[in-house]
Amino acid sequence: MRIPAGEIAEVLTALIRAECVNDGSADSGNEARAVEVLSGYLGEPDVVVEPHPGRTSAVWRVSGRSEDAPRLTLMGHTDVVPVNPDGWLHDPFGGERHDGFIWGRGAVDMLNQTSSMAAVFKRYRTGEFPAPPGDLVYFAVADEEGGGSYGATHVLDTVPEAVECEYLLTEIAMPHLATPRGPGLPVTVAEKGPHWTRLTSTGTPGHGSQPYATDNALVPLADAIGRLGRVPMPVEITPEWRAFVDALGLDEDTRSRWLDPDQIDRTIDRIAVDDPGLARWIHACTHLTLTPSLLQGGMKANMVPDHAAADIDIRTLPGQDEQSVHDHFRKALGPDYDEF
After folding, report:
1. Model pTM score
2. Contact between 29 and 143 (Cβ < 8 Å)
3. Confidence category of residue 281, pLDDT binned at 50, 70, 90
4. pLDDT tens digits, residue range 14-49?
5. Bridge partners, 177 (sequence order)
6. Burial (Cβ within 10 Å: 0-12, 13-18, ≥19) of residue 197
7. How far apart are CA 38 and CA 296, in angstroms?
8. If you average pLDDT over residues 300-314, what whole number do you get?
């Protein structure tokens, strides 16, 4: 039975308009608004968890036919990252339809799947679909974009029985791949390891009009960020990536280029000409990635800053660890590594 696309679109539009923006602070997110949307669609949840005002996660459950059958959880996060509306053609929280698309922050990550999973789950909840073999759980989770302290982590710490399962499906089915065996979607079996890092530097303050003999904390930090951005990110052809490529059925020349650490960067550059999204995905699957995302320093425009900090989003591959991160920093920063 096909679920009407218009129904899913209505839920997606409502979730976009809920504007659950998570900037990493405790008082952001307000995922309670998304739970209200989903409650109006699915009915009242079976479990509601709110570790901080507005930071709400909710669980709905359909009992399966057999207690011995494996349980499946459909997990969709309801928060989205901040947005600068100046760079958008349409209101990022308008949920508007243009050119056959629904536009809005979170329309891809991952409110499209959160709403689609809700539509499927509803059929089981109302009895339109027959009861599944094992329990089916729908988990609308808060704070995914901020690390999960107010979402999945808190739920597992307080009511783990609400979401315990043998199988779980969550984001994100992309990119579409054209293979000799036909179109396919990759299945992600784990997330890369987050190693979010903050670099700090200190200096000697002074008045901005007389910088001589002061020590500007921003300058060495900005230089370090520049060097980190210029040094190529380290390649790692993991067993997981090798198994994935082998399963695609590629011709031997293409397979060889996708698995050769000395060729993979050139291969990604060629792919990016026609499919930048696929190129970014392959790069992320084969590299330790490092993204400077925030740079802060000083208190006023006419003061020499005596303190500066930079936040860096770092993701490691299977087999890489904190030592891998430090090794890359030492390579990029050289003798200055110990200054931060």
Report:
1. 0.80
2. yes
3. very high
4. 999 999 999 999 999 999 999 999 999 999 999 999
5. 184
6. middle
7. 38
8. 94
C-alpha torsion 317→221→223→147, nearest 10: 20
Q: Which long-range contacts (CB under 8 A, 24 or more apart) does 93-97 make?
A: 93/16, 93/17, 93/19, 94/16, 94/17, 95/12, 95/13, 95/14, 95/16, 95/17, 97/9
Say yes or no to pLDDT of 173 above 90: no
The position carrying tokens 């729908």 is 138
173, 141, 144, 177: which is closest to 159 by C-alpha?
A: 141
Task: Quote the CA–CA distance of 144 and 242 in Å, as a whole number.
Answer: 29
**Distances from the Cα of 217 to the Cα of 200, 220, 225, 274, 310, angstroms:** 9, 6, 13, 42, 11
* Mean pLDDT calculated for residue range 154-165: 96
Each residue of 99-119: pLDDT tens digit? Answer: 999 999 999 899 999 999 999
CA–CA separation, 212 vs 206, rounded Å? 9
The counts of H helices and E strands in the chain are 10, 15
For residue 131, which amino acid is it?
A
